[in-house]
Amino acid sequence: MAAARDGEGTRRKILGAAEELFAERGFDGTTIREVAERSGLSGPLILFHFQTKEGLYEAVKDDIVRRWQANLDGSPLPKGGAGAFVDVMIEAAFAFYRDNPTMVRIANWGRLAGDDAPWGGEEEIHRWYRTSLVEAQRRKEIRDDISPLAITALISGAVHVWWEFRGHMEEHVRQGSYEPLSDDAYLDQITAVIRRGLAPLGGEKEKEA
Amino acid sequence: MAAARDGEGTRRKILGAAEELFAERGFDGTTIREVAERSGLSGPLILFHFQTKEGLYEAVKDDIVRRWQANLDGSPLPKGGAGAFVDVMIEAAFAFYRDNPTMVRIANWGRLAGDDAPWGGEEEIHRWYRTSLVEAQRRKEIRDDISPLAITALISGAVHVWWEFRGHMEEHVRQGSYEPLSDDAYLDQITAVIRRGLAPLGGEKEKEA
DNA sequence: GTCTATACTTAGATAGAC
DNA sequence: GTCTATCTAAGTATAGAC
User: Fold this and answer.
1) Which residue among A116, A203, A205, B32 is buried most deeply as judged by most CB within 10 Å?
2) Dihedrals φ, ψ of A208, to 5°?
3) pLDDT given at position A165
4) Which alpha helices (H) appear in B51-165, and where do they start and end?
């Protein structure tokens, strides 16, 4: 179906196939021929729409960011200071990795290749992190001797490793180095550790398991 | 120098150039011609010694593991239970990433490409982690409601992100999303948070900054 | 807009002289 | 062991008919 003369539909078919392949194999590992096969279209048609392989790659990233931002618009960032902002932050990061695997993988490939530029909209998220954390520190909801950057890195890292080292960690579990652990249990446990580690100093207000 | 007939020296020159390039650009992004240029040798000579590009890649990984294990033999794993095993673990992971950047990068490229197999000697490290953590839990030095896998992932993640998202995070700092933070300060801060987050429940023995 | 045919380039790998 | 010359396959990209 749609075998002829449907520019927009064709573009979307190509973008879909290319996104999968770039996520799986990276830029260098993906060929236009493979994108052509997976989308059921011809190579030249892909280049007609996107000019070059680079152009296709940029279009894929733009498309991902566009969809992601359209999604964000529906659910604005919660105001920091709901009391347990750190919990919100961990949960948000955890859900983001779970729900946007191709975006994360393409970003990972890009970062390894030396592309350190933030993706569209990322700055907004980080300013939200920083502002909310500083605010929580000001209110003495979390200790104020840990920099917001360290908190963000700690949380991002814990989440990143869980989703991106998944297969690798499963190998270690298979070899008996660790007991298996469910996604939910992991989320609960790192939340408990980080929240307690960030509790205000001096106060006896640590309670949760 | 060594322009003719020095098999072992040639092998090492090739391996050195190839390790750099595979770390920078990954397997697909590296060409034998580039390895030839960087090592000052010819392409066919590389294939004479390693048969195929795949063979070269495997030889590079083997060589890295060999050097790394030779290094480990000099300093055996500390026995868990020096009191603050978690601190030791964080420091060890932090130093590992800092001191083995090409190994880490090649492993990252490989993992993205779907290679989840543990590298030689890795199992030993993870069994050390697990055993020491379980032991620390048994002695009530750290809380026992957090699984060793979660602790390992939390620590690995915090360290991984710090070294592997470095350029990316610097972009965020440059954009004003965060204040700069030194390596040492980051290490101190995540150690403080994780150690406190893992302190035994119920006890009032949290003290450090 | 879409395809087939094809040009051009570069990749991995081999042949064979030295 | 090492090189030059070269092969073949595969890659990106273009030409031109429909």
Assistant:
1) B32
2) -65, 160
3) 98
4) 53-74, 85-99, 101-112, 122-138, 148-164
The pLDDT value recorded for residue A82 is: 59
pLDDT at B114 (0 to 100):
98
pLDDT lower than 70: segments of chain B: 1-4, 79-83, 203-209
**Which of A111, A164, A181 is facing B147, going by the closest CB pair?**
A181
Closest-CA residue in chain A for B166?
Answer: A116
- Same structural domain for residues B62 and B89? no
Range of the domain at B143: 79-202
Residue B152: list chain A partners with CB under 8 A.
178
> How far B206 CA lies from chain A's nearest CA (Å)?
9
Q: How far does B156 lie from chain A, in Å, by closest CA? A: 7
Tell me the one-letter amino acid at A183: D
Say if residue B68 is in the same domain as residue B87.
Answer: no
Is residue B209 situated within a structural domain? no
Q: From chain A, pick out residues whose CB is under 8 angstroms from the CB of B194.
A: 154, 193, 197
Q: Is residue B1 part of a domain?
A: no
The confidence score (pLDDT) of residue B2 equals 44
Same domain, B66 and B167: no
Query: Same domain for A85 and A138?
Result: yes
Residue A38 inside a domain? The answer is: yes
